[in-house]
């Protein structure tokens, strides 16, 4: 049961990341977590029923209208000590409303409320096709303040919803005395362990492109992605929660928060062209490619940005450029140092993922689009 200082709300429980985070929280055998129940914001009675059937009284699904109703969100958020906000990170006003609600709990003698958020590495990316290129830039979360300042200035220059959201919650939290930390997350791979969406976005989308077209694509030679397995990422949220619950200071002053509150859960790094090559290798090795109407050798073609945006990033040209052309190198040191995070799905798991994703696509388990991830699913 939740004690008075650990009423916890989780968003995104139907998603790839959120479902896996919830699953890891519920499976945790740690003393600080194993007795807890989690309130979950969900849309739809079927979803709520399935969560109850599977997880019993460890979960309490609560219906909400979604991220488009800030007043309602703030009223809900005001009831919690800790919010794990791992649904879509692309709706700035909706996410800030969680901070506004938590701010109502900030009182001198009360435990400081926490918001644990998810952002994405495209927030850091350059736009080498339409703006200046920074192919050698690497950010280190050891200096979260510098990362925050960069994100804030970039977003002032050119707003990008996922970044506006991340900067918005960190800024509002700092001003309101709420503790807030964002995991600015690289490419997430591997099968999710939640009850609903178990598939990632980036590798499934690229694999589908390669199998559909018979060739890979590139927008630049230098575009890169760091990567993390979804279960290793979920472990970071578990460790963060444990830190807040187990430490005397509830992580206040220990975990970065507000204007320094950014952690990169990054494990490995790959060029976009290498990712394409791995998709091609998996498809050629399995005999899925070549087909009669596709190139007989493995080919990574230069393609126009607009074509890629239309086909794989819900028409969002800036997101396509940041994702598939941009540099967004992340050096993740804080999670290992502060949380003793020890990711276990390394190079071998990353390589295996391309084989697994091809099989999932062949089995019809990959019906993905970007719409839900970017908060555009009604
Ligand atoms: N996947 C990646 O590789 C990756 C990489 C970096 C960062 N991220 C970050 O992680 C976030 C979650 O990604 P994901 O892969 O877990 O996406 P996902 O599987 O598509 O899940 C999205 C979740 O957000 C919820 N949601 C979507 N639109 C909403 C809205 N308008 N109002 C309320 N809830 C809404 C969905 O709930 P319903 O079921 O109610 O629609 C679902 O629980 C992304 O936004 C992004 O910021 C992901």
UniProtKB/TrEMBL annotation:
Record protein name field: NAD-dependent epimerase/dehydratase domain-containing protein
Record-annotated NAD-dependent epimerase/dehydratase domain positions: 158-243
Domain of life, source organism: Eukaryota
Chain ranges passing through the membrane: none
InterPro entries: Epimerase_deHydtase, NAD(P)-bd_dom_sf, NAD(P)-dependent_oxidoreduct
Lineage: Eukaryota, Fungi, Dikarya, Ascomycota, Pezizomycotina
Coiled coil: none
SUPFAM superfamilies, A to Z: NAD(P)-binding Rossmann-fold domains (SSF51735)
Gene3D superfamilies: NAD(P)-binding Rossmann-like Domain (3.40.50.720)
